[in-house]
Amino acid sequence: MGFTVYPALDIRNGRVVRLAQGDYARQTDYGDDPLPRAGAFAAGGVRWMHLVDLDAAKAGGYTLLPLLAAIARGTGLRVQTGGGVRSREDVARILDAGAARVVVGSLAVREPETVVAWLAEFGGERITVALDTRQDADGRWKLPVHGWTEDAGADLDGLLPHYQRAGLRHLLCTDIARDGMLSGPNLDLYAHLHALAPGVAVQASGGVRDADDVRNARQVGCAGAVLGRALLEGRLELADALAQEALPC
Q1: What is the pLDDT of residue 58?
Q2: pTM of whole model > 0.85?
Q3: Residue from 132, 175, 179, 213 carrying the catalytic annotation
Q4: Please, is 146 exposed, middle or buried when counting C-beta atoms within 10 Å of its C-beta (0-12, 13-18, 19+)?
Q5: Out of 10, 53, 90, 213, which one is annotated catalytic?
Q6: Which spans in the chain are helix H?
Q7: CA gap 243, 173 in Å, rounded
Q8: Is the pLDDT at 65 greater than 80, yes or no?
Q9: Is 10 one of the catalytic residues?
Q10: Which domains does the chain have, with CATH numbers?
Q11: Can 132 be counted among the known catalytic residues?
Q12: Which residues form the signal peptide (predicted)?
């Protein structure tokens, strides 16, 4: 299993932003140029990118189809994208617009059998399940939904094996406490996931600061890492992250 870096663009009101720990009130604005930024990723040697519709993550109804199509058509990047995916029609239209994979988050927690059916229909290579998690006082990895604002009552250790049995190939897992905080990825969490579901390609998300963090995520068994704030702020050079893709498996 190879390793992939996923530069991320989170979009709100047409602008590139980052949220701290998923809090919409704690937003940093990076400008209104998502398409040129995607082009710069491609020029730098990136193969994949991660595109998030933050408006739809709360309200539902993916809104980035024009941007997605422009990125896919104009840059050659393979785009993994989601936010507000609520129906089979959402999945189909996002794929039709040029996405390589559709990310399904809240619905994957609230209605797992619906998403299992999508895995069967569209295939494990076209769906990424996002199980964003927050550890509770008892040490359980809970799975909040609706822009991380509601507790759905589910937990990571119970749901992930169910998806693996259903043919899940790609898991995006964000430790919400570290998202946008530049505090380092939760390596213990990702090592746990690798042991829990060894056949699933896990993407680390949340907290990546530098090339060492990318390297460490790979070493604990992750198949990829999502790069957000550190890349946007120049704390992490794209070439240094991409060097992890070139290493032998």
Answers
A1: 83
A2: yes
A3: 132
A4: middle
A5: 10
A6: 34-43, 54-59, 65-75, 88-96, 106-110, 112-122, 156-165, 187-196, 211-219, 229-232, 238-246
A7: 22
A8: yes
A9: yes
A10: 8-246 (3.20.20.70)
A11: yes
A12: none
